Amino acid sequence: MLYAKRRGEWRSFAHKSVLKKMAFNSKSFKQEVRSAIYQSMLDVSFARCGACIGYVQDSERRNFEKTKIVKTTDLLIGGISRKTEVIRKAISGRKFHNLDRRLRQEILGIDGATIISRDGEILAAGTILNLAQEENSSAIGGARRAAAVCLRKYGMSTKISADGEITVFGKREDEEFSFA
């Protein structure tokens, strides 16, 4: 797909340049994980269901775990909620990029954020972040945007609106772009 009519206008999709831009000059962002996230962002965008995705770099994983913005019950490793049990069973230990695109779309469609590690491990899915711990937890632009802005400091994050627009956030405040 190179072109699609979105919100009354024709839009072009420059897949290679978006994939490159999503890395925000990070050499550690694995191509296969980045491609899977990109494909899933498009799937969710065209399904018009919305989502929030966080990507955690290895160098930020400890900080992410220390902040406790995700309830321990929502973490796929060690989480005890019914939701995490069902997701663990559905993914059967597979990495995000090794899942079927439809399953990835279903996981992203669960209300809350999906958080993925550098190697594609799903750390949490359908988690409502504890934004009260964040000093900049303003919900200007909605809860998905607030969650994505919070998650950006760990690597990269995306907000997919129910109207189909996709916004990608890098670690720095000047690293942000929208498409679709």
Q: What does it look like?
A:
- With 180 residues, the protein is α+β, with helices and mostly antiparallel strands.
- It has a single domain, classed as DNA integrity scanning protein, DisA, N-terminal domain (YojJ-like (1), CATH 3.40.1700.10.
- Helix content is 33%, strand content 22%.
- It has a six-stranded mixed sheet with strand order 5-4-3-6-7-8, with helices on both faces.
- Strand 7 and strand 8 (176-179) form a beta hairpin.
- Helix 2 (31-47) crosses helix 5 (101-108).
- It is globular.
- The mean pLDDT is 89.
Unreliable spans are none
The top-level CATH class is: Alpha Beta
Could you give the order of strands across the largest sheet?
Answer: 5-4-3-6-7-8
The count of domains is 1
CATH topology: YojJ-like (1
| Integer-rounded radius of gyration | 15 Å
Task: Tell me what portion of residues adopts beta-strand conformation.
Answer: 15-25%
- Label the CATH architecture: 3-Layer(aba) Sandwich
User: What proportion of the residues is helical, as a percent range?
Assistant: 25-40%
User: What spatial form do the alpha-carbon principal axes imply?
Assistant: globular
| Alpha-beta content class | alpha+beta
The biggest beta sheet reads: 6 strands, mixed
- The arrangement of helices and strands along the chain is EEHHEHHHEEHEEE
